[in-house]
Amino acid sequence: MLEIRCDGTPYEIGLKHGKAAKERIERSIQFYGQLFQESCSMSWAEVLQEASIYVEPLKKIAPRYLTEIEGIADGANIPFLDILALNVRSEITFGLFTDKSRGLTDVPSDGCTSLGWLTESTSFLCQNWDWRVEQGQNLVVCYISQPDRDIPDIAMVTEAGIIGKIGFNSKGVGCCLNAIRCRGLDRTKLPIHFALRTALESRSREEAVALIKSFGVAGGGHILVGDLTGSTGLECTNLWVKELAMDKEGRVCHTNHLVLDKSDIDEPPWLMDSPIRLERIRELTSNLEEYTVDTMFELFKDTKGHPTSINRKQEGDNKPETLFSIIMDLTRNYAQVTFGRPTKYSERIMLVL
Known about the structure:
Elements (H helix, E strand, L loop, with lengths): L1 E6 L2 H31 L3 H9 L2 H7 L1 H14 L3 H8 L1 H7 L17 E6 L4 E10 L6 E7 L8 E6 L6 E4 L4 E5 L13 H9 L4 H11 L5 E7 L2 E7 L4 E4 L6 E4 L19 H13 L6 H7 L20 E10 L4 E6 L7 E6 L1
Parallel strand pairs: 1-4
Antiparallel strand pairs: 2-3, 2-11, 3-12, 4-5, 5-6, 6-7, 7-8, 8-9, 9-10, 12-13, 13-14
Helix pairs in contact: 1-4, 2-5, 3-4, 4-5, 7-8
């Protein structure tokens, strides 16, 4: 697995990321170019036009992140809008499917399962990240440090070129992501990968929740934020960000559909297995007797409902597969990451800050 260590100003961070990950970024652009055509009937020229709409709003609410994207673009010798398009890929894939004039065909493309759990001794944040197998080769582990700013150091697993994803920081704040597909975009708000980066730069769960709610999120998604005091789910749409609190067992479980009141949101049926996986992760955690990183990892090996199980497999009509699993111990501030399906992973690393 490619590991990238970046420190300095936002531009320098982006520059180092771009240089180190150039080949993977180019492959990511090729991958998403094909996916956008498949899921949204958009040419790459149309994708770049869509990405350009976000520039002016982001200059007002997240200028440092645009500077970092400029650095990635320069470091990889790739146009700026191509990199920005990667960073708004969720808004395109899961928001622009609504444009019926494009003659869209329905293309399921996700399947992640996430869990935040505050036990008697430990605050865990975990998930399987499920996506198309082709994109697995373009994952990177990125460490970010900005010593001249009062911002925590970050360790995250991301797709090359994307500035915010799944991981934790030196203050013990972590985040996970579930895709949600619902109609509507508000391009004046934070794209969801920018919201993830905002969480990763926060000093506490409380601060992360407040910041994301104040900025708002451009489209659908679920961000699971945690620290040593527990976890909060943030169900996001273009209209609102709502909090999903821990249950009486200290858990927040989530998959790929809205579970809070969505009476003002149009969420067409998508992944029929999402409610099944949600019920399954709740069932598995109800029977656990020991709480360690290893026992958490065992939960994500579950194959009930194969191939669209928590441990997902690309098979038949099911296109996504589990590409990595992450178990974060936010009490002790480290994470275990395995690449590939958890029952047959190719590599295991530890993230420590």
